[in-house]
Amino acid sequence: MKFQAVDELGQFSFDDSGIRQLKIAGGQAEFTLDGAVVRAGNSQNARFQDMYSGELILQLENAELARLMKEGMKYYDADGKLVREVPDEDVPVPAQPAVLSRLSSGKIFTVVMDDVAEGYACEFGIDVPQEQDEEETDTFWLCLTFDHSTAMWDRYCSPSEGE
After folding, report:
1. pLDDT (tens digit, 9 = 90+) per residue, 30-45?
2. Could you give the CA distance from residue 77 to residue 84 in angstroms, rounded to a whole number?
3. pTM of the full predicted structure?
4. Strand partners, 107
5. Do residues 139 and 160 make contact, with C-beta atoms less than 8 angstroms apart?
6. Tens digits of per-residue pLDDT, 61-75?
7. In what order do the strands lie in the sheet with 137-146?
8. What strands, in cross-sheet order, belong to the sheet with 156-157?
9. Distance of alpha carbon 112 from its chain centroid, rounded?
10. Which among 15, 32, 157 has a CA at the least distance from the CA of 105?
11. What is the DSSP code (8-state) at residue 50?
12. Could you count the other beta carbons within 10 Å of the beta carbon of residue 8?
């Protein structure tokens, strides 16, 4: 890859980035993303303005899945009265591979960096079309801890090309 940024996650915006592929295995997590933004302060961005990357590969070394959670929902009637509430729920370990597979068709809506004693921690908020109704989405929170991150991409592009 032509461009490579190590441990500069704060110098990217992954909001609205489509996930083409997600692999978590053997202590490594790898996202293949469309629509990531390389911020002006990134060491690989000489243009001093935020720029869309083409396809971007984000690798997280010594990655561990800290938590995978499906966000709950609240349903209201037309008068604004709460009808039903579905609580947040942790995805059980046996179901995690299937959910991680679903995340490969999702879209990241936010990334929250957390402080940890050693290394890094990130929470990826990901919307995924529901299996039974693609007009509706499920929201998942993928929490990973890791030692180092490497983002790699070949070119910069316009916003319409980055998606």
Report:
1. 999 999 999 998 999 8
2. 9
3. 0.89
4. 18, 127
5. no
6. 999 999 999 999 999
7. 3-6, 148-153, 56-61, 28-34, 17-25, 107-114, 120-129, 137-146, 64-70, 89-90
8. 12-13, 37-38, 51-53, 156-157
9. 10
10. 32
11. -
12. 18
